[in-house]
Amino acid sequence: MKVNLTDEDLSKRGNSNYFSEGVHEVLIQKAERGTTDAGKDYVEFTVIGHADEEGTARLWFSTEAGSKYALSIMAGVAVHNKQTEEEKAGVRTAFKAIDDTDKVDTKFLAKFKEMDAFYMVQQSDRTYTNAQGETKNSYDRNIYGYEPKMKAMTADQLISSGTPVSTDDVPFA
User: Fold this and answer.
1) What residues does each domain of the chain span?
2) What is the helix (H) or strand (E) element at residue 87, kind and residue range?
């Protein structure tokens, strides 16, 4: 495959802007259906933040419970973006009528473009090993129609996070 890199292509990589851990107000850029190599269906939302941060979040259609959860999140986003109670009721009615995830097609997903949402990035309990053999923390990235609350860290998580704590202001330390 031939590639012709421009100065703009090279500068984009160095200026990548990712979301920090926390809850962010975002604008949905696109929503697309996809299927993993293992045959699991999902919808992937691409979002952008106020400081041009970019991120993605997936909602899964791999089980009935997962599909119901995904559709309820999508309905929450759509309802959040409507002004009147009548419009909100119409969205709820439309989502209740979905009896097959195949109805969540390209035309349906196009309606999410430019909608407001909340995007949460939070460290998960999962880890992975990178190419250098280092164990790294995984992060969950989720989308919501309302502002979610971050999970509180346990004492063990705080201790194992490796964040040094100054004892300069602690008497008798």
Assistant:
1) 18-151
2) helix 85-96
